[in-house]
Amino acid sequence: MPHLIAPEWITSAAPVPYDHALSEMEARVAGILAGDASEALWLLEHPPLYTAGTSADPADLREPGRFPVHEARRGGQYTYHGPGQRVVYCMLDVGARGRDVRAFVQTLERWVIDALAEFGVRGEIREGRVGVWVARPDKPPLPDGTPREDKIAAIGIRLRRWVSFHGLSINLEPDLSHFDGIVPCGITGHGVTSLVDLGLPVTMDDLDAALQRTSPWSAA
């Protein structure tokens, strides 16, 4: 494996329009492929919007007029982005890091789980359900008796010549009612939660610091 330096961390203070974020990611990926730009991890928030991944079912868009809907061209289905949610766009050379897409996604999942653990939250992965989940024994089970779980983080990536873009989102304190306009990631029954919804007075700065402490990407 070639020698790799740690990715650049970029933080945007103001909400970033989705189309602008796409353009910036496209430019950075092109620069990485050309050898003119470093890898980057971009921390940001978006104004309220829905995105449709490559597997999105139009029937899962329950309120099409509620917020703008963007074709994301990433893996996955519908998701929501908005204030109070930390989005992390990961522009990384997966080719130089082993060319294993499954392992890369698992690394993203583990990163989220490790960051949540900094606040005493146990994030878990479920077969057949994308993202990171939190058990909710405080809530009634589903009608079939299945224990209730809420989603706290979403993951969806795209690769171009083995360079990744898009990434993940973690719910810090978004308006959870905004998720009602879609079937998040096509999954019904279970709900959505956030760090603040779980009773944790976490700030965005706290979450960013946890993400940086637990980042799996450093000089190699």
Provide key terms for this protein.
220 residues; alpha/beta; eight-stranded mixed beta sheet; three-stranded mixed beta sheet; 20% helix
How many strands appear in the DSSP assignment? Answer: 11
Which stretches are low in confidence, meaning pLDDT under 50 for 5 or more residues running? none
Dominant shape: globular
Global structural class: alpha/beta
Query: What is the rounded distance between the termini?
Result: 9 Å
Structure, explained:
The N and C termini lie close together (9 Å). The protein is 20% helix and 27% strand. Strands 1, 2, 6, 7, 8, 9, 10 and 11 form an 8-stranded mixed sheet that branches. The protein has 220 residues and is of the alpha/beta class. α1 (18-34) links the parallel β1 and β2. The mean pLDDT is 92.
